[in-house]
Design goal:
Strand order of the largest sheet: 1-2-4
Number of strands: 5
CATH architecture of one domain: Ribosomal Protein L15, Chain: K, domain 2
Strand content: 5-15%
Radius of gyration: 31 Å
């Protein structure tokens, strides 16, 4: 094989259409843009414009609001944590933190913290360092001999002190 013998598959690429090069080319005069008006000009994008009629995004009612101070927790059930321990991805001797859960593949990214929920069964004795935990999760962890340290509560205490 020689470099000068290499070519692309036939029909895989087309030549660029040269517009505005006379009526004989088939793309002369208006260059495929139709005729006149704002849309025939370059750099025009009229998204949502409905010819002067009130656009849909303004006709529909608006509801609710976005709270900039809201927290978006990763919710993890204790059953999922137990699966990771059984698979050997989480070390039962070390504390279960956000970093440990990301490393184990239980959660994909940290967000604002982790909230432990009580669905499933926990057999391993684990110490959790998380932002929040439900009552049922806390009860199940303590029943298994583990402990829960809430980081969100500590942060609130530090802010008020």
């Amino acid at each position: 094989m020689k470099l000068n013998g290499i070519s692309d598959n036939p029909g895989s690429s087309k030549n660029r259409m040269r517009v505005g090069r006379g009526i004989g080319s088939g793309k002369g005069k208006t260059g495929g843009r139709g005729v006149k008006g704002q849309k025939a000009r370059t750099g025009v994008a009229i998204k949502g414009f409905e010819g002067g009629q009130m656009p849909l995004h303004r006709r529909l009612p608006k509801r609710g609001f976005w709270n900039p101070f809201s927290t978006d927790y990763n919710e993890v059930n204790i059953g999922r944590v137990q699966q990771a321990v059984d698979a050997g991805k989480l070390d039962a001797a070390k504390a279960v933190t956000i970093e440990a859960l990301v490393e184990a593949g239980v959660i994909s990214r940290p967000r604002d913290g982790v909230k432990i929920l009580g669905q499933g069964e926990l057999k391993a004795k684990l110490s959790f360092e998380v932002a929040a935990a439900s009552k049922s999760a806390r009860a199940a962890i303590e029943k298994a001999g583990g402990s829960v340290k809430l980081l969100a509560a500590e942060a609130a205490e530090a802010a008020s002190a």
